């Protein structure tokens, strides 16, 4: 078909000027026209946070089809940690395109897949013998982690936690906590999934982590029985659930109990991994060494790739042919991952995430001091959030949150919300973003809060 209203095209990557610049109102006329086509052509269930269409992106800036430059504080949900269209990633993918696009690793394997597995085995917590398997999406990797844990243990039950988000496929919808919009009307869900209470310091009265874990463990023992439990899956810092950082001691106590009971401990680091929190993996902040680690999002600089990495005896349990898929560990995604991993390591991006975190926390706690609607400022590294509440009661204020986010969007700042109660604004900038751009983005948020 012909393209009407041909959008402006710009070359992305390092040539994109790192600035916020609005040349039309948001959305501009070309984005509005494309949104009409989207409504007519794309299923309504596939939403869009912003009403603008992207034409190009580089580093921490997205340029829309009308020529507006937006500050990216979302990284496409923690994906472009190395910055959008990072030159190293672009170069690697271009070279791979010239070599071959696909063979299927389970037909004729290729080196880049093995090299990604080696890197994951080296970088994930613990120096034990490990293996990895690659997939396409976070949800697919979570599904495979559960498959592997069930095969290894010969048990069926799986525990996930309150506020958890693990994806939108059938099994992962079951693991995900929040009904709207993720589960409503999509049942029945897979059996043998159970939910346990989480440590949520802002809303549980500040119960210490060990006590909160003991409460969860007691519930698991009484309602399921450890002998039936294949795996416990948890995000070390929750993503969609609201950037909830459990109290110190919560994760180690759960891990210790899992070990003692032959339960596979799965850390879902899909959002928190790859330098995001100021360490390669968020598990490191609590000193835990999970049995299996699930990764995706930040792994490959924007290409679709995910992985399960873990103890060799668990990972090797499944029979040949039991794991895999047509595209899992696609060669373009694998070379992109190797390039991204090289960038995280050689460009000091893990340390940079810590600096970004300090800047965010300083600014947001200063805002909080004069604005009691900011109930909580939390997170680690470049994974920071504010929870907006009614100052009198601490009741979640989702309406205020939506107003602040859309005011920021209208001013050219891409910012995302999250949380079970829809009242959390989360900051996930690319780790390559400059202080100037980040500060300008926060100025816009502050202004949006002041006027909302
Ligand atoms: C995004 C996410 C997933 C699902 O990943 P997809 O690639 O969207 O399937 C799973 N777990 C966590 C913690 C996530 O943030």
TrEMBL record:
<dbReference type="GO" id="GO:0042802">
    <property type="term" value="F:identical protein binding"/>
</dbReference>
<dbReference type="InterPro" id="IPR015424">
    <property type="entry name" value="PyrdxlP-dep_Trfase"/>
</dbReference>
<dbReference type="InterPro" id="IPR005814">
    <property type="entry name" value="Aminotrans_3"/>
</dbReference>
<dbReference type="GO" id="GO:0030170">
    <property type="term" value="F:pyridoxal phosphate binding"/>
</dbReference>
<comment type="pathway">
    <text>Amino-acid degradation; 4-aminobutanoate degradation.</text>
</comment>
<dbReference type="InterPro" id="IPR050103">
    <property type="entry name" value="Class-III_PLP-dep_AT"/>
</dbReference>
<dbReference type="Pfam" id="PF00202">
    <property type="entry name" value="Aminotran_3"/>
</dbReference>
<dbReference type="GO" id="GO:0047298">
    <property type="term" value="F:(S)-3-amino-2-methylpropionate transaminase activity"/>
</dbReference>
<dbReference type="InterPro" id="IPR015422">
    <property type="entry name" value="PyrdxlP-dep_Trfase_small"/>
</dbReference>
<protein>
    <recommendedName>
        <fullName>4-aminobutyrate aminotransferase</fullName>
        <ecNumber>2.6.1.19</ecNumber>
        <ecNumber>2.6.1.22</ecNumber>
    </recommendedName>
</protein>
<keyword id="KW-0808">Transferase</keyword>
<dbReference type="GO" id="GO:0047589">
    <property type="term" value="F:5-aminovalerate transaminase activity"/>
</dbReference>
<keyword id="KW-0032">Aminotransferase</keyword>
<dbReference type="GO" id="GO:0009448">
    <property type="term" value="P:gamma-aminobutyric acid metabolic process"/>
</dbReference>
<dbReference type="InterPro" id="IPR004632">
    <property type="entry name" value="4NH2But_aminotransferase_bac"/>
</dbReference>
<dbReference type="InterPro" id="IPR015421">
    <property type="entry name" value="PyrdxlP-dep_Trfase_major"/>
</dbReference>
<keyword id="KW-0663">Pyridoxal phosphate</keyword>
<comment type="similarity">
    <text>Belongs to the class-III pyridoxal-phosphate-dependent aminotransferase family.</text>
</comment>
<dbReference type="GO" id="GO:0034386">
    <property type="term" value="F:4-aminobutyrate:2-oxoglutarate transaminase activity"/>
</dbReference>
<dbReference type="InterPro" id="IPR049704">
    <property type="entry name" value="Aminotrans_3_PPA_site"/>
</dbReference>
